[in-house]
Amino acid sequence: MKRTIILTVMLLVIGRINAQITTSLTVSQPSATLSEWSANNSTIIYIADKSGAVGPQQVIIKTEMKTLDGEIVATKDLARSQVYTLAAGTRIFYAKDVVPLDVMTFAGSYQNSLIKTGQLPAGTYQLSVQLVEPGTFMPLTPVLLRTFNLTASQLPYLIMPVNNDSLNAKAAETAIIFRWTPLIPQAQVQPYYRLQVFQILPFQQPLQALRGNQPVLDQLLRGQTQYIWRSQLPFATDTTARKFIWTIQTLNANQQPYIQTTGNGESRSEPFIFFIN
Amino acid sequence: MTMKLLRTLFPVLMFIACTCVRAQDAPKKKLPVKLTGTMGFTYEGYGLHLQPPGSNVYSSRKPWNQLRFIFTPTLQAGKFSMPINFNFAAMANSIAGPYAGLKNQSVGQFFTNPANNFGLNPKYKWAELQLGTQYLKYSDLSTGDVGIFGAGFDLRPKTWRFKFFTGTSQQGINYAATPLPGVTGAYKRNHVMFSIGNEKENKYNFSLNFSKAKDKVSSVTSPPLFVMPQEGVTASIVADVYMNKGWYVKTEAAHAYFTRDLYQPLSPGFNNSFKPFLTGRTSTGKDWAGNASLGRKSKNFDIAYVTKYIGAGFQTMGYPYLQPDRWDNTISTRINTWKNKMNIVASIGQRVNNISNTSLTTKQFIGNLNWFIQFSEKFNTNISYNNFGFTAASGTNPYGLKNVSNDLSVSSGYNWKNSKRMNMLNFSWNFSKYNERDVITGITTSNNTHTLLLSYVPTYFNSTISPDFSVLYFNDKLPAVKTSLFTLSSGLTAPVLKKRADIRAQLQYTIGKLNSYSANKNFVASFNADYRLTKKLLWNIFLSTNYFKYGDELGTPLLGANYLESNYRTGLLYKF
Fold it and tell me: B30-84, pLDDT tens digit by residue?
């Protein structure tokens, strides 16, 4: 008798799944900073397509994040989850619907990492998503599983001229070599490095010059981490050109800041100063 | 708007200064009020002619026109003093930071533009008011890098220190896509900070520092596309102790709460609030940072160990460019010996990144040495060496990253004299090697650069004219790219017009060669004159022209391409 009831319920559920809602899930290169997911609609796309003659249906998106070993990283608190009403047709859900951080519950060490850094430990994770019925949390669609990798980016560090270095004016008039470390990890599509050098005027603070002046060098370079600048500046006669600040801005393939919500939001590395003597 | 403001503001400043100066110049009366300082303006023009026109072979690197004003007097009356620091530019030219791309400023944007400074610091005994633009450094980890327009105070009764400041570092700026290159946009950012401490110079310094900044979401009608409104609170404790024989210990520990995006929802379950100062959101992180140094300073010998830890989630609005997630350890020393004829400055250190395990682990080794020896009155040598090694785990690539930069410089100076002149000869050689491993193939490419420079400066005993001559050879080799530069330059300095003016002029000619392409040629001529119109009034003129003609390295369509860049600057500076 018991078996018959369970089988009947399962058949009913499967029947509803097959007959009414089909889903698909895409996860593409999510940012290591989880709060950035919701600002980028391409990070997670979950499409629910409802067909059939049945009227509007209420659903909840059930989400789980796991490691490859199956360890639970985060689960969505279904009791606090938003209820969506699906009418006939296609509805697209994004990261802010699928992984709303304010209703996700993270496991101990992952919670600590998230609160501290806004990121999870580097590694490969699995995202599983399905639609369930509000109240009963009975599944309405199959679980869709996608694997993705999280590794936080480290902006380049400046190498040379080293901070507060003093360069020979005669040599600097001909060439100055700039070097920096690459973006870590190395991106599949090579990033752009925007090398900028600003003259610090006699009455200016270094950061004032960086944020207020037009750079005397503004060079966009793809992938390379060294640049030889032929300054063509007459340092011997121009006594105001004695102090400079330089930095690297790391840009993605669309030439937009690579890291947008952490730090200065401009994806600029910590600047260095050099002097001409 | 800005120009109107300038037209009003500058005559007022001139009037105030002239009135005070005239009063001060009145003979034989010792006035209770004293005004000292400088004021003036500089106009700078820039021109760039490209051939073929519109070819984009070169980009402008200065504003076409710029007018800068400086007004920095100090008013002194007994124990009262008031330094004024006004320096500002007529046109906005920001490329980086919150004002990037903004051309037409409102009055509020003009006053808080980082290019401009309007600061007043009236001070009476130990009490100082801080008004207008201030760059305040409370400590290395709390706040110190950003100019803020506002009001505050710095009180120093006996050994106590009470500091407070509040203001705005940037106004709301609407995003605009056109006209190109557009305006990046920014949210209005308000700051508040305070510090309480006790300090005795060369004995100890203890302080508690607090800084908070928050972006105003409603300050823009067209929000920036890629900049999120942020909020941050940082608290730090500083403890420095200076002991006998030059020994010292300096420490700072800081804790920061930082919201990366104020549009994100609140996160009551995250335990990341710092109420009443900051309410946590899903984009809020909290982390700590610390630094400590132990060392000894003396006349001829310094040694120090410095450690600095910046947590991955540590971000402070007072140092917006600070790079997190690192631990630096450095030992440095300075030695003066051989009757002060030999100086050695050296440091060695390591930086480890990814303490938080959210990224790939990287290590950086940094070593520097500067060694100066004065062998005799005639001969000296300076040797400097910089090494920078960077390694990163391979991640998903077959090989890990490994970049090593080595930079060695040797320069020697020799001088001799006869009855007519003193001769100075300087020779320097620099060798720079940069190895970079490809993470896919594992092949290391080596970039070798040599720079040779020879300078000769004769100084004539019976003439005021001082010429100089130099020749430079630069050679850079990569596996498929070879760049050589050869530069000849000569300069001249001389007092003229009955020594009322000092002039400097220089001609510089460079031949550059890239691989087997035909040579490019560069000619730079520059001239500077400082003319003392009166004892207090200085007139400066600077002119330079830079002509560059490409070889055939740009390809057939741009054969013969060239550009002419000119820069002219003039200004008056009055010292009173």
Answer: 668 999 999 999 999 999 999 999 898 999 999 999 999 999 999 999 999 999 9
Same domain for A121 and A54? yes
Identify the closest residue of chain A to B430 by CA–CA distance.
A171
Does the pTM exceed 0.95?
Answer: no
In chain A, how many domains are there? 2
Beta carbons within 8 Å of A269's beta carbon, 6+ residues apart: A155, A156, A157, A158, A180, A247, A248, A249, A250, B321, B323
ipTM above 0.95, yes or no: no
User: Which residue is listed with tokens 């001060």?
Assistant: B24
Contact status, residue B572 vs residue B40, Cβ threshold 8 Å: yes
In this predicted structure, the answer to whether residue B210 has a pLDDT above a threshold of 60 is yes
SS3 string, B181-214, reads CCECCECEEEEEEEEEEEEECCCEEEEEEEEEEE
Residues A190 and A81 in one domain: no
| Beta carbons of B356 and B372 less than 8 angstroms apart | no
Given pLDDT bands bounded at 50, 70 and 90, which one contains residue B5?
low
Residues A92 and A218 in one domain: no
Neighbours of B460 (CB within 10 A): 12
Asked which of A150, A167, A187 is the last residue of a domain, the reply is A150
Residue B130 burial (CB count, 10 A): 22
Q: Which A residues, 49 through 88, put their C-beta within 8 Å of a C-beta on chain B? A: none
Question: What is A98-167 written as a DSSP string?
Answer: HS-GGGEEE-HHHHHHHHHHSBPPSEEEEEEEEEE-TTT--BSS--EEEEEEE---B---EEESPTTEEE
A82 and A209 assigned to the same domain: no
Structure tokens of B283?
């984009």
A168 with A204, same domain: the answer is yes
- Sequence-distant (6+) residues with CB within 8 A of A55 are none
User: What percent helix, strand, coil does chain A show, rounded to 5?
Assistant: 20, 40, 40
Q: Who among B311, B386, B405 is closest to A116 (CB)?
A: B311
Distances from the Cα of B354 to the Cα of A60, A122, B97, B389, B403, angstroms? 37, 10, 27, 17, 18
- B179 token code pair: 């006209």
For residue A274, the distance in angstroms to the closest alpha carbon of chain B comes to 15
**Domain stop point among A90, A116, A150:** A150
- If asked whether residues A205 and A265 sit together in one domain, one would say yes
- Return the amino acid letter for A152: A
Q: Is A113 on the interface with B (CB under 8 A)?
A: yes
Q: What is the dihedral of CA A37, A39, A43, A45, to 10 degrees?
A: 110
The enclosing domain of A265 has a CATH number of 2.60.40.10
Supply the range of the domain harboring residue A139: 2-150
Per residue in B70-86, pLDDT (tens digit) is 999 999 999 999 999 99
Query: Mean per-residue pLDDT for B140-148?
Result: 94
In 3D space, the residue among B294, B202, B303, B308 whose CA is nearest the CA of residue B248 turns out to be B294
How close is the nearest chain B Cα to the Cα of A263, in Å? Answer: 6
Residues of chain A with pLDDT under 70: 1-19, 53, 263
**Residue A268 phi, psi (nearest 5):** -100, 135
Instruction: Give the side-chain half-sphere CA count within 13 A for B459.
Output: 6
Task: Please answer yes or no on whether B565 and A232 come within 8 Å at the CB atom.
Answer: yes
Same domain, yes or no: A54 and A21: yes
- For B314, which residue in chain A has the nearest alpha carbon? A117
Residues 245-274 of A with CB under 8 A from B: 247, 249, 256-257, 260-266, 268-271
End-to-end CA distance of chain A: 94
Going by the DSSP 8-state scheme, the letter that residue B176 receives in this structure is B
The answer to whether the CB atoms of A119 and B312 lie below 8 A apart is yes
DSSP-derived pairing of the beta strands B188-200 and B204-216 = antiparallel
Residues whose CB is less than 8 angstroms from the CB of residue B386 and which lie 6 or more positions away in sequence, other chains included: A160, A162, B367, B368, B369, B405, B406, B407
